[in-house]
Amino acid sequence: MTKQQLFEQIQKKRSFLCVGLDSSLDKIPQHLLKYENPILEFNKQIIDATKDLCVAYKPNTAFYECYGKKGWETLIETWKYIPKDIFSIADAKRGDIGNTSARYAKTFFNEKSSEMSFDSVTVAPYMGSDSVTPFLTFKDKWVILLALTSNSGHADFQLQEVGGDKLFEKVLKTSQEWATDEQMMYVVGATRGAAFADVRKLAPDHFLLVPGVGAQGGDLKEVCQYGLNSQCGLLINSSRGIIYAGQGEDFAEKAREEALKLQKEMEQILVEADLV
């Protein structure tokens, strides 16, 4: 999916919502445990209930890898079930020496070898360019680089000064030498608020994947105040706040209700910004 195609989906659905599929056996409704693959059934019902309200789905691969072979099969089948006009994100946070990163890229982008071909994968930049560039060799695929995250330990490294820049600013500046805004996005946590203004000074045209709205306390309006650009430029992720909104047999309806609330907020923001 190209940047323009993603923006067209945002305009069509009047939404820039990403639903995080962080699905866990100990959190899904208990009545689903009767199914041969409870997590896959949960994911399918969540997707069916929200696919007209969101423009992206983001399975966090840790929630699948922890179940071994069965988990990988569930991840593959979940990817296959995501409608192909919806942006798919493998939230894997990979990054290693070049030949290893090349295998990671093949894992998530080469359907012939792995049975999966996500539109994008999250990548950690700590090891530098040769750990990231293998992911960029795949046509029409995206790297979503960790920049300024929403976790409590982000300040341990990301805010440290490096040659006059904070480390996350160095990441933003240096990584733009590796790829354009047509192939690279950045992870910027919603709980960073006004820091989006600093991010936009350095990356005005890039899409930003924004976790932390909802359960982690990020404020949607504040994020949009500082982070919105001429093509929206934001994918706002909500995981727990949507997928675990209900625990009964109507869990998918409850998930839809929460997704719809966010979509309506986003629609108003897009209208006010004259983007739809």
From TrEMBL:
Catalyzed reactions per annotation: orotidine 5'-phosphate + H(+) = UMP + CO2
Keyword Lyase on entry: yes
Protein EC: 4.1.1.23
Name of a matching Pfam family: OMPdecase
Gene3D superfamilies noted in UniProt: Aldolase class I (3.20.20.70)
Example of a GO biological process term: 'de novo' pyrimidine nucleobase biosynthetic process
Keywords linked to the UniProt accession: Decarboxylase, Lyase, Pyrimidine biosynthesis
Enzyme class: lyase
Domain of life, source organism: Bacteria
GO molecular function ontology, one term from the record: orotidine-5'-phosphate decarboxylase activity
Domain Orotidine 5'-phosphate decarboxylase: from-to ranges: 16-255
Pathway(s): Pyrimidine metabolism; UMP biosynthesis via de novo pathway; UMP from orotate: step 2/2
Signal peptide: none
Keyword Coiled coil: no
Family membership noted in the UniProt record: Belongs to the OMP decarboxylase family. Type 2 subfamily.
Name of this protein: Orotidine-5'-phosphate decarboxylase
Organism of provenance: Pedobacter petrophilus
Organism taxonomic ancestry: Bacteria, Pseudomonadati, Bacteroidota, Sphingobacteriia, Sphingobacteriales
